[in-house]
Specification:
This protein has helices at 37-40, 50-54, 72-81, 108-123; strands at 5-12, 17-24, 27-30, 34-36, 42-44, 57-60, 67-70, 90-92, 97-101, 103-106, 129-135, 142-145, 149-155, 163-172, 175-195, 210-216, 234-236, 251-253, 262-269, 272-280, 289-293, 300-307, 310-313. It has four domains: 5-101, no CATH class; 106-188, Thiol Ester Dehydrase, Chain A, CATH 3.10.129; 189-252, Antifreeze-like/N-acetylneuraminic acid synthase C-terminal domain (Type Iii Antifreeze Protein Isoform Hplc 12, Alpha-Beta Complex), CATH 3.90.1210; 262-313, SH3 type barrels (Roll). β21 (289-293) and β22 (300-307) form a beta hairpin. The protein is mostly beta strands. It is built from four helices and 23 strands. Strands 11, 13, 14, 15 and 16 form a five-stranded antiparallel β-sheet that branches. The chain has a five-stranded mixed barrel with strand order 19-20-21-22-23.
């Protein structure tokens, strides 16, 4: 059976001495930041000094999951610091008293879900998108202090590739109890246009050359195309493999004028208009200035595209 310690303290208050009995168990649990004598001991015969003796601070409480050891000598020092005379103390106690902190277990999965939901709201996916946030590691259950549990989330680290990081701070009664970084791998899924078959470079697209599929677009470069009507008037910038996601980066508008096309170049001088035939030396969209060549003299000059096959001389 555990042996309890009985401390007899002679306290002289001016009106006489009172025999105060302080009994401590070999083990005690506290629920505050400080270890107060009244929380770990039974104090009797203290009279009017009962409350003052109860408030003697024996030390700081241990953090959750750890313990702290008190010795009779440490108790004597504290009594002296709080105005009591330790010389009259007779200790009959174990050599140490183990102090632990009152805690409660919290599932690690709960904190993962808190960080995941905060991150999901921050990412604000579009209505037609689906997000998956997969934690990079499991979070262990933890012991936290008993009290009102709240939390705070903030961005952490750099966004590298698909990785996203959340700094989670757990608070008990408004005081930080735990802080750590939770990392997630982000996957964005959306129904986008993909190539039905391999598409050669510079080949014009049509609705028949694409299909709609749900794909992970997290690492896709450019804005994915979603509506088959978007490919009208577009072509592949470079060769596209079968199943490639079509985006604004790997497609471009079909030029009004293509290299080696025969075009008409209009030159205006006052009320006179001269139209000549030329060969386009490069592709171009409406408004673009391209180089053309006279097929007879082989002279090259610049002209601005104003319509399909029609250019205007640039002086």
């Amino acid at each position: 059976m555990a042996r309890y310690v009985t401390i007899l303290v002679g306290v002289f208050l001016g009106l006489g001495a009172l025999a105060i009995t302080v009994t401590l168990p070999p083990r005690a649990t506290v629920d505050a930041d400080e270890i107060r004598l009244g929380k770990v001991a039974v104090i009797t015969e203290a009279g009017d000094d009962q409350e003052r003796l109860s408030q003697v601070v024996l030390g700081m409480s241990p953090v959750p999951g750890q313990s702290r050891t008190l010795t009779p000598e440490m108790i004597r020092v504290r009594l002296r610091q709080f105005g009591f005379n330790p010389d009259a103390i007779t200790l009959d106690c174990p050599p140490s008293i183990l102090i632990t902190r009152l805690t409660t277990a919290v599932k690690g999965d709960m904190f993962v879900e808190i960080a995941r939901e905060w991150l999901r709201q921050r990412l604000a996916p579009a209505a037609e998108e689906k997000l998956e946030l997969t934690p990079t590691r499991a979070m262990l259950d933890m012991q936290v202090l008993v009290g009102e549990l709240t939390w705070d989330c903030a961005p952490a680290g750099l966004e590298v590739g698909s990785l996203r990081h959340v700094m989670l701070t757990v608070l008990v009664d408004g005081k930080p109890a735990w802080r750590g970084v939770l990392s997630f791998r982000l996957s964005r899924y959306a129904e986008v246009l993909v190539a039905r078959a391999a598409i050669p470079r510079k080949v014009e697209l049509s609705e028949l050359s694409v299909a709609k599929e749900w794909r992970d677009i997290t690492m896709v470069t450019g804005v994915p195309l979603r509506n088959p009507a978007e490919v009208a008037g577009k072509r592949a910038v470079n060769s596209l493999a079968k199943g490639a996601v079509l985006t604004g980066a790997n497609t471009e508008s079909v030029p009004l004028v293509k290299r080696n096309d025969l075009v008409h170049v209009r030159a205006t001088c006052g009320s006179f208009v001269v139209i000549a035939v030329a060969v386009a030396l490069e592709d171009g969209l409406a408004g673009a200035v391209i180089r053309v060549r006279n097929p007879d003299s082989h002279q090259e000059y610049s002209a601005r595209i104003v319509g399909a096959g029609m250019l205007e001389l640039v002086l």
